Amino acid sequence: MGILALSGSFYDGPTPEPRSHSRSCAFFRVFRVFRGEPSQVNSEVYRDFLLELAAASGDFIRPYFASPDLVVETKSDETPVTLADRGAEELMRRMIRHRYPAHGILGEEFGPENTGAEFVWVLDPIDGTRAFAAATPLFGTLIALLHNGQPVLGAINQPILRQLVIGDGLRTTLNGRPVRVRETPNLAAATLLCSSVLSPARHQNGEAFAALGLRVKQLRTWGDCFGYLLVATGWADIMCDPIMNAWDIAALIPVVRGAGGIITDWQGRDPVNATSIVAAIPGLHAQVIAALNP
Q1: Do 106 and 252 belong together in one domain?
Q2: What is the predicted pLDDT for the residue at 6?
Q3: How many independent structural domains does the chain possess?
Q4: What is the pLDDT of residue 40?
């Protein structure tokens, strides 16, 4: 199955060119309009369409998972990519153009489109491609909707486990069922997640992160977007990423907030302009930020 099999279904215009490393800075331009004020848009009118995007991308990705024929390429930024990444994003872009032609699109694999629009969809077709390429289901598809630069709707879709988490900043659901972060009394009882135990030393204060790891009950690399899914659904307490891109972050904000969690950058600042993320339950977030920034 290839990308060309999708052509003509939703969009008959030209296929966007894959992004290059030199163009990656353009992906952050849409986030410059973030001001931190709550949006007044009714995101419910777009929820059904988000469900359609999640279902279609999941159906596309699923046959590639654990396939012995899967080809993994390395992009110019040394990150992996597969036909599943590119094809799923192309499919979602076609669907968005067909349903909402005035909306903008921002995605990991292809260039930004009309990102000055009132509404912009932010797509990461496979967040956790290394896990996906290793037949490990700790990955997901991230889909977010921005209104005037503010994330008003977000989804984490795990197509293999068939777990779909959707949040709007006020409420978060797992497969339609409301979910909340759990209550854990202290760091000694907490589960801390990360995507890599090596990354904090490369991008933040590695010694501080290692010290935090010794204070918690357990530290596990159930990472990428799946870690945030676990925090939002009450199965973990803290998820940390010391370096992230715009397409990694947008969907996480309404999901974590809607579940009652707190989400900031590594230093505790506004996540919408961030290049790092810490998400945690309310009773522990301040302690985590203090521990990471001694």
Answers
A1: no
A2: 30
A3: 2
A4: 64
122: which strand partners?
106, 144
Same domain for 129 and 239?
Answer: no
pLDDT tens for 183-203 read: 999 999 999 999 999 999 999
pTM comes to: 0.87
For residues 170-189, give the mean pLDDT: 98
State pLDDT tens for residues 79-93.
Answer: 899 999 999 999 999
Q: Are 27 and 146 contained in the same domain? A: yes
- Domain with residue 33: its CATH number is 3.30.540.10
- Structural domain span for residue 253: 187-292
- Residues 23, 150 within the same domain: yes
Last residue of a domain, one of 178, 209, 244: 178
Six token digits for residue 145: 């909707």
Residue partners of 284: CB distance under 8 A and separation at least 6: 184, 186, 187, 190, 237, 238
Are 218 and 157 part of one and the same domain?
A: no
- Return the CATH number at 284: 3.40.190.80
Q: What is the DSSP string of the chain?
A: --GGGGTTSS--SPPPPBP-GGGGGGGGGGGGG--SPPP---THHHHHHHHHHHHHHHHHHGGGTT-TT---EE-TTS-EE-HHHHHHHHHHHHHHHHH-TTSEEEESSB--BSTTSSEEEEEEEEETHHHHHTT----EEEEEEEETTEEEEEEEEETTTTEEEEE-SS-EEETTEE-------SGGG-EEEES-SSHHHHHS-HHHHHHHHHHSSEEE---THHHHHHHHTTS-SEEEESS--HHHHTTHHHHHHHTT-EEE-TTS--GGG-SSEEEE-HHHHHHHHHHH--
Last residue within a domain, chosen from 145, 178, 211:
178
pLDDT tens figures, 41-54 = 777 889 999 999 99
